[in-house]
Amino acid sequence: MQADLQNIVEPLLKWYQKNKRELPWRKDKDSYHVWISEIMLQQTRIEAVKSYYHRFMKELPTVKSLANIDEEELLKLWEGLGYYSRARNLKKAATVVMQQYDGKMPTTYQDLIKMPGIGEYTAGAIASICFNEKVTAVDGNVLRVISRVVGSTKDVLLPETKKEIEKDLKEIMPEQSGDFNEALMELGELVCLPNGGPECEKCPLQKNCVAYEKNLTQEIPVRIKKVKRKQEEKTVFLLMTESYKIAIEKRMEKGLLSGMYQLPNGKGYYKEEEMKELLTNWNLKVKQISFLTEAKHVFTHIDWYMKCYLVMVEQENSRFLWVSQEELKEKYPLPTAFQKCMKIGK
Length: 346
Ligand code: SF4
Known about the structure:
It is a single chain. The protein is of the alpha+beta class. It has helices spanning 9-19, 31-41, 46-59, 63-68, 71-78, 84-100, 109-112, 120-131, 140-150, 159-172, 177-190, 210-213, 272-281, 325-331, 336-339, and strands at 230-240, 246-250, 261-262, 265-267, 286-298, 302-313, 321-323. Strands 4-1-6-5 form a four-stranded mixed β-sheet. A three-stranded antiparallel β-sheet has the order 3-2-7. Iron/sulfur cluster binds at residues 145, 148-149, 191-192, 198, 200, 203, 205-206, 209, 211-212, 217.
């Protein structure tokens, strides 16, 4: 079977009308709402994004409020979502909207893509969903669905494969471009699932799908990973006083998790003697060291393998910022990686 992509448009749109989920940012198709949700969805699944989205919108209901927020408060609001440069870019883009577009979001793909942090996918999603512009929005879900439908064994991680799929979709893009793009993504989220788990019996595209016909759903999409991931071992210290104050420090202004706070830590796994030496160098009088937990955190190109220790100290010192658990929760953005080390009772 040769898939004719034109044939997927109608069944897909019909399926979407019946099956689309009620999502908070779908209610009004407001471009600010769609923008924020799309950036959040780039790193987290829909169900998890909902609570972040509500919290964000409660604090920052308008582009203006986003442009004006203090960066540290913004990072706190973004805590747990990871990829903190995305939060910073949101603020930068909001500032551009205030300064160059009179506080109103740009309405075309060409203008949207010039904004900090808005790439082809996000510009396409906003322009099509909110302004019905006939542009594509191709994310991982769409790459998977289309590769399966046409039976393509090309590597979906290659930019040229994405370009080809964008071109094919552009040719069949209906007037309801926003619905069509969302329908493809929704089908990828709900039915044409990754990792060999598509639920083809529920799929409106079954009759048009080469991968289904040829029993290739396990093989497609093809993803050839070339990047070798870096692995880093770390010893992380939860330094605590008798009054339960915890030591944190600000990370460098550049690099991974820049500008966020962290628990004091060192590269590699420390032996007990090495730990004591390091803690003495930090001018701390140690009362007790106990092993807390091991944790792993996965970033884009690097994995951290952490051994975490609780260190009870006699008193605070000036090297670190000493905060209560409440203050830490309320005020200081602490990346999820370090939160994994905080498995203690109060
Ligand atoms: S028939 Fe199966 S593999 Fe093909 S698009 Fe539908 S869910 Fe995906």
